[in-house]
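Sanity check

After download, print the first record. It should look like this:
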Amino acid sequence: MFQDKRVVVVMPAYNAASTLLATHREVLGWGIVDLVIVVDDSSGDETVAIARELPQTLVHVHERNRGYGANQKSCFRLALEEGADIVVMVHPDYQYTPKLLPAMVGLVASGLYPCILGSRILGGGALRGGMPLWKYVANRGLTFVQNLLMGAKLSEFHTGYRAFSRQLLEELPLEANSDDFVFDAQVLAEVLWAGAPIGEVSCPTKYFPEASSIGLGRSLRYGLGCLWTAFEYRSRRAGLGSSERFPDSRSLSWGSPE
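Expected structure tokens:
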């Protein structure tokens, strides 16, 4: 618990056997997390067996590989079912440090921000942590276009380290989003559409062989999906077309986007 709020950490896992234990140990080490939910997307290693031995952990298994976005849908659904007031997504590959949990949870609990991102770009830690140069350049370029089209000022849209309030997650049409990696971009676009403020904290990161990554082909598809989502958002702002992600009736909780 943190300030009487139930904190649930969700871990979308795929072949994370070599790093899950270390990540989980550090997550629980802060004493503020009530439950960890590991959703395994049909891993081919010992991820599930290891997860089932961990304390304070609920394990859910996809019998077939459904994709990163589908994994997150299961994560967030289960967290809300388990009574979470604050949900933090921490990748079990140990690329993002769990040491930021108290700061991210505190910012959501304060009511200042219903969404917090752990940014690899703030503080210049991405390249120092080993992010490949081509990924860094793509991250900066995509983020620039997304900010331009959606009227945002985020340092990056592509971090997987995120915290949400229960209220915000309940209002987002998550099921309308992709089951693939572009889910991440679509979620943030939905948050912006709802008019909810997004906070960022600087997040050191590290790249190593065990850290999850996608190849060039899937990266290109992801990039195109991000651009399409941004254009879709812009079109809806102009009153064109229709979209389940960006409905005509926006959230009344935070008002409409500027």
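If your output differs, re-run the checksum step. Summary of this record's structure: The mean pLDDT is 93.
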